[in-house]
TrEMBL record:
It is found in: Cytoplasm. This is Ribosomal protein L11 methyltransferase. It comes from Pediococcus inopinatus. Methylates ribosomal protein L11. Its main location: cytoplasm. One of its GO terms (biological process) is methylation. It catalyses: L-lysyl-[protein] + 3 S-adenosyl-L-methionine = N(6),N(6),N(6)-trimethyl-L-lysyl-[protein] + 3 S-adenosyl-L-homocysteine + 3 H(+). Its EC number is 2.1.1.-.
Amino acid sequence: MKWTELSVQTTNEAVDAVSVILEDAGSDGVKIEDADDYKNLRAGKFGEILDLEDIPHIENGALVTGYYVSSSDIKALVSKIESQVLALKKFGLNPGSGKVIQKPLEETEWQTEWEKYYHPVRVTRYLTVVPSWESYQKTSPEEKILKLDPGMAFGTGTHPTTQLCLQALEMYLRGGEKVIDVGTGSGVLSIAASKMGASEIKAYDLDQVAVNSAVENLKLNPDVKNVQLGTNDLLAGIQAQADIVVANILAEIIVPLVPQAKACLKPNGIFITSGIIKEKLPTVLSALQDQKFKIIEILQMKDWRAVVAQIPTD
């Protein structure tokens, strides 16, 4: 299979937002190159001098790269991405030139490039995401390993929006809860919920490719046996009752999800939402308050926000 690499020329402050735009457009993995990362390099432990001329790097701004099947309408996709990136100005972000650079890429080359940038990452106090091809030993008995293979899609579980969801799950899961994961993608939130003691997890995604990806990641975590996967448009038609509903999706999609989540939550149920760029936070909070949710907590990482809300019993 042949792939096309689309790289967006942008700024450091817009990196996260551009990453979401590429992923929302169907990007099969995202790579970030930031000039500031090279500027901050220092001499090594034993005083070696790093010569930036010997390290391939960009000199200014940032480059965010996504990967797409070459059979896609790439020309239309480039136009759509450029338009959405430049529209970030409306949210107070400087997107830079927003120019999209196109390059053909073989699948084997893509895989090699991806694996260079994907390593074990401790994403919360107890959770560590580990790629399937890496060996890793726990550093403490309490640490929980989430094995993932992003393959050609759906991220690594280390994006700020995902980390915020994982942090919230770690804070509010006590064991024995029933969980619904909306927009499961790689399945990382469902896998984490299971490893943290949830009794039952139902995970849904509109994209069958995402569900297939989650199935493969579940196989990498054989101790996870209580996740049910399915395709669905958010929670439309779902009658299950849960203690926790978690959704790592864009703010525009969270708004119509709010009443559906309310219908699927037990009294005192917890609704965890992430994928909210800070400028969209008031919109999400308003939608939650319109449905009588109580806002318990707002978590933040960089320009992203996650909201923990609850249905009060009174």
